[in-house]
């Protein structure tokens, strides 16, 4: 309706009055209507949201991604606040690095890769077999 009133050469105040007549208290504030009138005067006719990236491009760089990768390889129990303290970037950027770029997820306080490479799978099978041998030989009842 704001766009329609703008095209009918009404002012922002007239548009606000018309909206209040129809919708009562559930209308946008005058500042919002003035903002849209300004946008329409700049020939913005696309009413969809403009593209915004997930996080600043400065936070998602190869240096930060490699640093986080090394930190996870060194300490699988690492928490977000530890990464944040070292790199000085926001939680959303850390989450993007861990989940999108490194394909990691946290399982029982451990960071593990979503898509394990063959070497990871082999290491896990070897470890499981070693634990089974310890259990069968009576060295440990805990598995």
Automatic annotation (TrEMBL):
GO molecular function, one term: methyltransferase activity
Designated name of the protein: Histone-lysine N-methyltransferase SETMAR
UniProt record, GO biological process: methylation
Nucleotide-binding is among the record's keywords: no
InterPro entries associated with the record: Mos1_HTH, Transposase-MT_Hybrid
The entry's keywords: Methyltransferase, Transferase
Domain Mos1 transposase HTH residues, every copy: 2-42
Pfam families given in the database record: HTH_48
């Amino acid at each position: 309706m704001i766009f329609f009133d703008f095209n009918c050469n009404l002012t922002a105040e007239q548009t606000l009055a018309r909206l209040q007549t129809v919708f009562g208290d559930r209308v946008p504030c005058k500042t919002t209507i003035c903002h849209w009138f300004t946008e329409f005067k700049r020939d913005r006719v696309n009413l969809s949201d403009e593209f915004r990236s997930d996080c600043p491009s400065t936070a998602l760089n190869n240096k930060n991604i490699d640093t986080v990768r090394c930190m996870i390889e060194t300490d699988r129990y690492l928490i977000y606040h530890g990464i944040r303290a070292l790199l000085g970037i926001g939680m959303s950027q850390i989450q993007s690095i861990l989940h999108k770029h490194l394909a990691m997820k946290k399982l029982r306080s451990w960071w593990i890769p979503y898509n394990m490479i063959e070497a990871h799978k082999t290491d896990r099978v070897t470890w499981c077999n070693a634990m089974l041998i310890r259990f069968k030989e009576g060295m440990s009842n805990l598995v």
